């Protein structure tokens, strides 16, 4: 190869040209796939929108001017009335109807001290969420070790547990709630059962994935000194995974607060039921009070859980979606 | 290792041996707390009382209803004969004559002041099986009661059912106008019937028969096969059949009761049943508008649910995408813009999906538009939050590289940022698509469209548990399919990240996933 002082554009060897052509082909195909995918998505989206509009009770463009009806109808008599509704203070508009009977709902603890109705309902909803997260995570905890491939050697046991968790997870909560509603009649217990059963599946899956990623060295050490299965799990795996389990527990609690609110709205007690009743009866002040309370509670629960998770697992709690 | 070495280790790690009390007993303390809380909830929700009051027999019957159905012959005592009725919308069609109700017909003499019993067919029907019993009305003409009603009371002779036997698997109920013999397995009990007065067993009752007070109605249980009530004026039997009755064609359809081969040959080469359209069109129409199963409506509502989840997630992703760039500290160096966008996301997320659903149901009217808008609003918040967190975690070196060769800001985003986050974004959106398919079912129940409301209504009637199960199976199927599609796409996407972990690209790392991914 002789040295030259004039710059020449590099010419490709035969093999190089082949590689170049191949690369161009691939790039073109990739672009084609991307465009094809986007076109498909667009078609599916517009088709779906058309379908949704066709089968909806009101048409999108007809109803657009009325979209804020919900809020327009929510204008209370005066802006202090929602506060009275929230704290069960007597209203000056009280005419004996259900609309302004705020003090009726007081839940007295002692002669003078009471919990306002909606706070009590909110506590009920939070209790439903917390209790069912507790029950669900207990069973999820017990089952997750049976589903983890590094702990349970038996293939069929693992398979059965995983399928069980999957079915329980995918089963619509509302059906479980509806079924138990038929047996127990109205009340929060169907909601607790529905949310718990769903939580078993959801947390069980998360838990066993954590367990499968645990460091197996402590387990090896325990096995070397002759520990049995329970001891291996309890001393080798559980201390490693517990912070993550707690973190998932808290995340699940956040979700379950929302789920129990929705289940409440279809008849399972708690704040959801109060909200639905007050909306359907057209009680503005009560509705505003409940929406406000619900909003504050969800913000508070989210913030609290985020704070606690940060303490438990550090920055991991927020580093979502990265593959490291 | 001698004692000195051990003491030495202990001395070097005092923190391992002198831990604070609460840390040392954290586990038992936590368990104790959970137990105490359980007791509190037991009291708060009065779980004990509710469990005690619950109707557990009902639970069994409802569960059985998911996969089976009951047929109820109603045998009434007349003076010296019996009449057999089936409920009006019986699963057996308009003229049931099942072969498990054996009738004995004889000529009787009676005064003609009441309508006579239509003595149907032969004593034992020969056509039809248990699952597709009976035959079209034309083959089996029953004497119309109207024709034989005499003008004046007089003694007439005619055929009527004088005894009937209802067979329930190994058990049976033999009925005559004043004597009922109930047999289950080897045991049998004879009841004397004093019409309109009392039901009296001749022998002590076994555990499977209950009579709440002497002379009153006797409740007979045959286990899964059915049950019966022996009353002083009639015997009602419920016989349970495994399976879903009339799943394809309802009893009004001309194809009802025909075997698959018969239906197929009718569709392919049969004469037109309805002159205006082909048999295939008629059959399809009959399936869609099956009165008991409402296939057409169920499928439409299911499609609505799917569409709600799909459109909601796609729109939320599209809107959250640019907003996330605004919210990310490292992309938009303006504290105001970051905070405003992030608080906006928090607002969308914290107004519960339920409230959004109620709000849009009021706005758009019940239907999928309301549901998809609710999902869209909630998930714009959640996805925006997740996206912006992913953006804040990117590797800055690539951006620097692109910037150093003089790229415009837009180019920096396109080539320095997007390749890092796009797979993550898409993967998050796919997770949400999947989980929204489930949540769309629930918000449907408050009126936001889709199968939720249909499911809820079917459950509230307490009689359509088979329909509920049918819908649940459809939902499970859809969730299963989407789960797999989303998993497949995610795996392909994660392959493009190339995190050097090619052996197990799908393993979830040991860190929590965002909230909605657990859903």
Low-confidence stretches of chain B: 117-150, 497-519
Q: How is the biggest beta sheet of chain B arranged? A: 7 strands, antiparallel
Helix/sheet category of chain A: mainly alpha
Number of domains of chain B: 4
Look at the structure and give the mean pLDDT of chain A: 85
Question: What string gives the helices and strands of chain A in order?
Answer: HHHHEEHHHHHHHH
List the strand order in the largest sheet of chain A.
1-2
CATH class of the largest domain in chain A: Mainly Alpha
Strand content of chain A: under 5%
CATH class of the largest domain in chain B: Mainly Alpha
* Proportion of beta-strand residues of chain B: 15-25%
**How far from one another are the termini of chain B?**
52 Å
Named CATH topology of the largest domain in chain A: MetI-like fold
Helix tally of chain A equals 12
Q: Assembly type of the shown chains?
A: heterodimer
What is the CATH fold-level name of the largest domain in chain B? MetI-like fold
Structural class, from secondary structure content of chain B?
Answer: alpha+beta
User: Looking at this structure, what is the CATH superfamily of the largest domain in chain A?
Assistant: MetI-like
Shape summary of chain B: extended
Helix fraction bin of chain B: 40-55%
User: In the CATH hierarchy, what is the architecture of the largest domain in chain B at level 2?
Assistant: Orthogonal Bundle
Verbal overview:
The complex is a heterodimer of chains A (324) and B (519). Chain A is mostly helical. Mean pLDDT of chain A is 85; it is low at 317-324. Chain A folds into two domains: 14-66; 115-317, Orthogonal Bundle (MetI-like fold), CATH 1.10.3720. Chain A starts with 13 loop residues before the first helix and ends in an 11-residue tail after the last helix. Chain A has twelve helices and two strands, in the order ααααββαααααααα. Helix content of chain A is 71%, strand content 1%. Chain A is extended and about 95 Å long. Chain A has a two-stranded antiparallel ribbon. Chain B is of the alpha+beta class and 519 residues long. Chain B has four domains: 13-54; 69-242, no CATH class; 247-293, no CATH class; 295-496 and 510-518, MetI-like fold (Orthogonal Bundle), CATH 1.10.3720.10. Chain B has helices at residues 3-12, 14-17, 21-24, 26-44, 47-53, 56-67, 145-148, 260-269, 279-288, 295-327, 335-350, 353-364, 368-392, 396-404, 409-448, 451-460, 465-497, 515-518; strands at 68-71, 73-77, 82-86, 101-111, 155-168, 171-176, 179-184, 187-194, 198-201, 209-211, 218-221, 226-230, 234-242. In chain B, strands 1, 2, 3, 10, 11, 12 and 13 form a seven-stranded antiparallel sheet that branches. Chain B has a six-stranded antiparallel sheet with strand order 4-5-6-7-8-9, with no helix packed on it. In chain B, a hairpin with a 3-residue loop joins strand 8 (187-194) and strand 9. In chain B, helix 10 runs antiparallel to helix 15 (409-448), helix 12 crosses helix 15 and helix 15 packs antiparallel against helix 17 (465-497). The longest helix of chain B is centred in the C-terminal third of the chain and has 40 residues, at 409-448. In chain B, 35% of the residues are buried. The model of chain B is unreliable at 117-150 and 497-519 (pLDDT under 50). The chains are: A mainly alpha (324), B alpha+beta (519). The interface between A and B is large, with 90 and 89 residues.
């Amino acid at each position: 190869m002789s040295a030259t002082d004039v710059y020449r554009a590099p010419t490709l060897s035969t093999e190089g040209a082949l590689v170049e052509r191949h690369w161009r082909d691939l790039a073109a195909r990739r672009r084609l796939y991307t465009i094809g995918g986007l076109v498909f998505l667009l078609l599916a989206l517009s088709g779906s929108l058309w379908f949704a509009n066709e089968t909806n009770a009101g048409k999108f463009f007809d109803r657009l001017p009325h979209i804020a009806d919900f809020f327009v109808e929510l204008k209370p008599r005066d802006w202090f009335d929602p506060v009275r509704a929230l704290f069960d203070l007597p209203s000056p508009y009280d005419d004996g109807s259900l609309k302004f009977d705020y003090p009726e709902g007081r839940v007295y603890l002692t002669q003078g001290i009471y919990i306002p109705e909606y706070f009590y309902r909110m506590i009920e909803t939070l209790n439903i969420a917390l209790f069912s997260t507790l029950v669900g995570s207990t069973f999820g905890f017990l089952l997750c070790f049976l589903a983890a491939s590094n702990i349970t050697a038996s293939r069929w046991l693992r398979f059965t547990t995983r399928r069980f968790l999957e079915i329980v997870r995918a089963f619509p909560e509302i059906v479980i709630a509806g079924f138990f509603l038929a047996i127990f009649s109205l009340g929060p217990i169907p909601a607790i059962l529905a949310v718990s059963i769903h939580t078993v599946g959801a947390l069980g899956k998360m838990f066993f994935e954590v367990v499968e990623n645990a460091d197996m060295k402590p387990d090896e050490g325990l096995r070397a000194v002759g520990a049995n299965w329970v001891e291996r799990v309890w001393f080798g795996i559980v201390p490693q995974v517990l912070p993550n389990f707690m973190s998932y527990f808290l995340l699940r609690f956040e979700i379950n607060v929302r789920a129990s609110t929705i289940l409440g709205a279809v008849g399972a007690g708690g704040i959801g039921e109060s909200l639905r009743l007050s909306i359907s009866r057209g009680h503005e002040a009560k509705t505003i009070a409940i929406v406000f309370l619900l909003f504050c509670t969800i913000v508070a629960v989210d913030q609290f859980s985020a704070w606690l998770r940060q303490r438990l697992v550090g920055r991991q709690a927020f580093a979502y979606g990265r593959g490291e | 290792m001698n004692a000195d070495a051990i003491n030495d280790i202990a001395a070097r790690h005092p923190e391992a041996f002198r831990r604070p009390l609460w840390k040392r007993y954290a586990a038992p303390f936590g368990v104790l707390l959970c137990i105490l809380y359980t007791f509190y909830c037991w009291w708060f929700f009065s779980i004990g009382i509710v469990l005690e009051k619950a109707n557990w027999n009902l639970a069994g019957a409802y569960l059985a209803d998911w996969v089976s159905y009951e047929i109820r012959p109603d045998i009434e005592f007349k003076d010296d004969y019996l009449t057999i009725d089936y409920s009006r919308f019986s699963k057996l069609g308009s003229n049931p004559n099942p072969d498990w109700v054996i009738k004995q017909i004889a000529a009787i003499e009676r005064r003609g002041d009441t309508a006579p019993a239509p003595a149907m067919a032969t004593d034992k029907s020969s056509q039809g099986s248990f699952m597709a019993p009976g035959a079209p009305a034309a083959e089996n003409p029953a004497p119309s009661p109207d024709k034989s009603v005499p003008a004046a009371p007089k003694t007439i002779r005619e055929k009527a059912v004088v005894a009937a036997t209802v067979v329930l698997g190994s058990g049976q109920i033999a009925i005559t106008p004043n004597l009922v013999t109930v047999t289950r397995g080897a045991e049998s009990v004879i009841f004397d019937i004093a019409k309109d007065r009392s039901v009296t067993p001749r022998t002590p009752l076994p555990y499977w028969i209950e009579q709440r007070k002497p002379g009153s109605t006797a409740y007979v249980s045959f286990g899964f096969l059915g049950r019966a009530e022996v009353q002083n004026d009639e015997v009602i039997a419920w016989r349970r059949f495994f399976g879903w009755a009339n799943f394809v064609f309802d009893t009004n359809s001309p194809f009802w009761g025909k075997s698959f081969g018969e239906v197929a040959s009718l569709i392919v080469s049969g004469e037109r049943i309805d002159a205006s359209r082909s048999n295939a069109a008629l059959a399809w129409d009959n399936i869609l508008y099956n009165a008991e199963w409402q296939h057409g409506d169920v499928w439409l509502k299911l499609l609505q649910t799917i569409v709600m989840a799909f459109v909601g997630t796609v729109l939320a992703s599209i809107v959250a995408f640019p907003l996330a760039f605004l919210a990310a500290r490292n992309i938009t160096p303006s504290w105001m813009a970051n905070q405003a966008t992030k608080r906006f996301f928090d607002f969308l997320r914290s107004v519960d999906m339920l409230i959004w659903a109620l709000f849009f149901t009021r706005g758009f009217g019940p239907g999928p538009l309301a549901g998809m808008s609710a999902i869209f609003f909630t998930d714009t918040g959640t996805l925006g939050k997740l996206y912006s967190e992913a953006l804040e975690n990117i590797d800055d070196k690539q951006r620097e590289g692109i910037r150093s060769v003089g790229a415009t800001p837009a180019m920096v985003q396109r080539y320095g940022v997007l390749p890092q986050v796009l797979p993550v974004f898409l993967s998050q959106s796919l997770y949400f698509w999947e989980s929204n398919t489930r949540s769309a079912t629930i918000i449907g129940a408050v009126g936001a469209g889709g199968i939720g409301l249909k499911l809820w209504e079917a459950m509230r009637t307490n009689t359509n548990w088979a329909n509920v199960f049918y819908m649940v199976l459809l939902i499970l199927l859809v969730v299963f399919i989407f789960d797999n599609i989303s998993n497949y796409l995610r795996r392909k996407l994660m392959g493009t990240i190339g995190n050097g972990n090619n052996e197990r690209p799908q393993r979830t790392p040991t860190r929590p996933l965002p909230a909605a991914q657990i859903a």
